[in-house]
């Protein structure tokens, strides 16, 4: 019976072990050991289960895994195989034990991970106000409404011949007006009922 060797495994032995497991499976460790010729069946089994199994993860431990490992190590002290089974075979008992020792020796690793997971919300860029929102924020002030001219317009058939003639005549400038015209403009117009027969006769003759 071969004694269990304490020397480390070489790259060539690992390669031969993988080839032997592919040929004989994981239930014939003595046949695997005979294929290697340098290790016992127990050594081959331990090496395969702890390091070479395809399901074993060798990547960095995540924050979730570290938290789970700390919790399980408190509930199940030193029961590394049972703890490893809680990781669905992705972590071995040896890797769980080594990771636990690392966390105990490096407590700042835990605080750094927890600090990096807490993200601070950065303020975004200032919000731009659209032209519609800007126009709605103030009202344009307007002046008082202008009064409409309430004087009724004179219909065309109601205009007198003198008024029609006046509209056709171009307006004179102030300096072109004669003294008689200026005096006439100052005189208020007489209503139709206030006109004398002689004045009416004169207007009719002018038309």
Question: Overview of this structure, please?
Answer:
It is found in: Nucleus. Pfam families: CTD (PF12815), Myb_DNA-binding (PF00249). By secondary structure, the protein is an all-alpha fold. Among the domains are: 11-52, Arc Repressor Mutant, subunit A, CATH 1.10.10; 63-115, Arc Repressor Mutant, subunit A, CATH 1.10.10. Helices cover 53% and strands 0% of the residues. The protein is built from 11 helices and no strands. The protein has helices at residues 11-24, 29-36, 41-52, 63-75, 80-85, 93-105, 107-117, 131-136, 161-168, 179-186, 197-206. The longest helix has 14 residues, at 11-24.
**Could you name the ranges where pLDDT drops below 50 across 5 or more consecutive residues?**
118-124, 135-139
Helix content: 40-55%
Give the CATH class of the domain at 63-115.
Mainly Alpha
The structure class reads mainly alpha
Q: What is the terminal-to-terminal distance?
A: 153 Å
CATH architecture of the domain at 63-115: Orthogonal Bundle
Major sheet details? none
Mean pLDDT: 75
Q: What is the alpha-carbon Rg in Å?
A: 56 Å
Q: Looking at the structure, what is the overall shape? A: rod-shaped
CATH-assigned fold name of the domain at 63-115: Arc Repressor Mutant, subunit A
Question: What is the number of helical segments per DSSP (H or I, 4+ residues)?
Answer: 11
Protein name: Pre-mRNA-splicing factor cef1-like
Subcellular location: Nucleus
Domain Myb-like: 1-52, 53-104
Pfam family, one: Myb_DNA-binding
């Amino acid at each position: 019976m071969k004694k269990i060797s304490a020397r480390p495994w070489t790259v060539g032995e690992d390669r031969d072990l993988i080839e032997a497991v592919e040929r004989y499976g994981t239930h014939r460790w003595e046949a695997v050991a005979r294929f290697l010729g340098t290790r016992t069946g127990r050594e081959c089994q331990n090496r395969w289960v702890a390091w070479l199994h395809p399901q074993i993860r060798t990547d960095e431990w995540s924050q979730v895994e570290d938290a789970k490992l700390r919790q399980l190590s408190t509930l199940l002290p030193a029961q590394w195989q049972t703890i490893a089974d809680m990781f669905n075979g992705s972590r071995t008992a040896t890797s769980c034990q080594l990771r636990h020792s690392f966390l105990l020796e490096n407590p700042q690793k835990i605080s750094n991970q927890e600090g990096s997971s807490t993200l601070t919300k950065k303020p975004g860029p200032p919000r731009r106000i659209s032209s519609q929102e800007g126009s709605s924020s103030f009202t344009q002030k307007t002046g008082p409404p202008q009064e409409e001219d309430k004087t009724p317009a004179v219909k065309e058939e109601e205009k007198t011949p003198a008024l029609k003639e006046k509209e056709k005549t171009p307006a004179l400038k102030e300096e072109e007006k004669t003294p008689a015209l200026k005096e006439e403009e100052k005189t208020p117009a007489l209503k139709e009922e206030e006109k004398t027969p002689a004045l009416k006769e004169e207007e009719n003759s002018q038309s």
